[in-house]
Design brief:
CATH class of the largest domain: Alpha Beta
Helix content: 25-40%
Bound molecules: ligand MV4
Shape: globular
Radius of gyration: 22 Å
Number of strands: 22
CATH architecture of the largest domain: 2-Layer Sandwich
Strand content: 25-35%
Number of helices: 14
CATH superfamily of the largest domain: ATP-grasp fold, B domain
Largest sheet: 8 strands, antiparallel
Number of domains: 3
Structural class: alpha+beta
CATH topology of the largest domain: D-amino Acid Aminotransferase, Chain A, domain 1
Strand order of the largest sheet: 13-12-9-10-11-14-21-19
Length: 447
């Protein structure tokens, strides 16, 4: 049994977790930094503790302080949310050693999927398709050249400790490989403390399609469909949708089946996401697995009506999965727009500061997950996500119309936000036609 959960996070996801706790009859404890003194997530929890000044390092990333807060308040579990310590294997283990349930997978699982070359190798063994590439880490330039020749150019070098696009380099030919391989290694070592690089064939114009997974400790696992996350800028997702306009029913069934097979083979528990690259001919390849709840889980909730945070907590309590795959019904279409405190007219520069006035849209099929309020001062220390605008409708066209309507209703004064960007995308011909891929924003200009 879990009776009290410490939420090791802030912002909208801390609110989202508090809400799930309340509906489950579980007490919640929030932590906050001094910079978050006026943050709403404090008010949503039953208890709240200040754990430090302002930097993430001293607060939301500080393992001893968070463990102490959990022990002092008698929390029997910790929910890490996303970001911060959500995929820190050491933190998961320290929780367990202190008899605090970490709401997420084990250290071993986090580290297996966190090491991208190892995850790739594991998927190859299971028979999950991966991009043609090296079997593991490539240590020296001679081997890199030999492998790239075999794979055929262009190739992409990836840091095994990277992920989410960090530490990647593309080489079009041997000359570029010779130049970039040592740089990729040095960057990987500097950024992740691990110089390990693996090489893959570079897929041009891929689609980013990910499958939501739900699994229990008895070996049951299902998928809750895909999300298309191709609308991203410098590896920051800005718009997500489900179902993907690029997907076919046959492809969904095949990819979903393979995603479930993968998590069953590794005995995964809880919620997770299997990410795929899909090329223009609809060949799909395993890319990464995320072992946390993701920002964009909301759109999956909208089309399945399944509360993923509740299911995540129940899975951590050891509850058996209450559905079979055939019980899952998908209805309609959902979009999420990430509203960030950033200026889309100035290269998305951060725009923290005081919210002078605020009005959120509402109505049928509209959901806003946010921690901001009129008068709130957005601190400059953390990530810039201030609201997730989520709409649901019966089909994609109706959902686009609904999102346009909501973007016209929203008022956030005092700071710059990504709202004008979203307005422009939702009027874009190619976006409306659903024919975009991950390069869509490369040549997108604000009007
Ligand atoms: C790739 C790729 C093309 N070919 N791998 C970026 C995030 C990281 N998880 C992997 N990424 C990519 N890997 C091969 N072999 C292109 C990308 C990529 C990308 C992937 C998903 C969403 C947006 C992207 C934007 C640029 C590059």
């Amino acid at each position: 049994m879990i009776k009290k959960i410490l939420i090791a996070n802030r912002g909208e996801i801390a609110l989202r977790i508090s809400r799930a706790c309340k509906e489950l009859g579980i007490k919640s404890v929030s932590i906050h930094s001094e910079a978050d003194k006026f943050s709403l997530h404090r008010k949503f929890a039953d208890e709240d503790i200040c754990i430090g000044a302002s930097s993430a390092k001293d607060t939301y990333l500080n393992i001893p302080k968070i463990i102490a807060a959990a022990l002092i308040t008698g929390a029997d579990a910790i929910h890490p949310g996303y970001g911060f310590l959500a995929e820190n294997g050491q933190f998961a283990e320290i929780c367990e050693k202190n008899k605090i349930k970490f709401i997420g997978p084990t250290r071993k699982m986090i580290e297996l999927m966190g090491d991208k070359a190892m995850a790739r190798k594991t998927m190859i063994e299971i028979g999950v398709p991966v991009v043609p590439g090296t079997e593991g880490i490539v240590d020296d330039i001679a081997t890199a050249k030999k492998e790239a020749k075999r794979i055929k150019y262009p190739v992409i070098m990836k840091a095994t400790a990277g992920g989410g696009g960090k530490g990647m380099r593309i080489a079009q030919n041997e000359k570029e490989l010779e130049e970039l391989f040592p740089i990729a290694q040095a960057e990987a070592k500097a950024n992740f403390g691990n110089p390990g690089i693996y090489i893959e064939k570079y897929i041009e114009h891929p689609h980013h399609i990910e499958f939501q997974i739900l699994a229990d400790k008895f070996g049951n696992a299902i998928h809750l469909g895909e999300r298309d996350c191709s609308i991203q800028r410098r590896h920051q997702k800005l718009i997500e949708e489900t179902p993907s306009p690029f997907m076919t029913p046959q492809l969904r069934e095949k990819m979903g089946e393979i995603a479930v097979k993968a998590v069953k083979h590794i005995n995964y528990e809880g919620v997770g996401t299997v990410e795929f690259l899909v090329d223009k001919d609809r060949n799909f390849y395993f890319m990464e697995m995320n072992t946390r709840i993701q920002v964009e889980h909301t759109i999956t909730e909208e089309v399945t009506r399944i509360n993923l945070i509740k299911k995540q907590i129940l899975a951590a309590m050891g509850e058996k999965l209450s559905y079979k795959q055939s019980d899952i019904n998908f209805m309609g279409h959902a979009f999420e727009c990430r509203i960030n405190a950033e200026d889309p007219y100035s290269d998305f520069a951060p725009s923290p500061g005081k919210i002078e006035s605020l009005h959120f849209p509402a109505g049928l099929g509209v959901r806003v997950d946010s921690h901001i309020y009129a008068g709130y001062d957005i601190p400059p220390f953390y990530d810039s996500l201030i609201a997730k605008l989520v709409v649901w409708a019966y089909d994609r066209d109706e959902a686009i119309k609904r999102m346009q309507r909501c973007l016209d209703e929203i008022v956030i004064e005092g700071i710059k936000t990504t709202v004008p960007f979203h307005k422009q995308v939702f009027k874009d011909k190619r976006f409306i036609a659903g024919t975009f891929d991950t390069h869509f924003l490369n040549d997108f200009k604000m009007k």
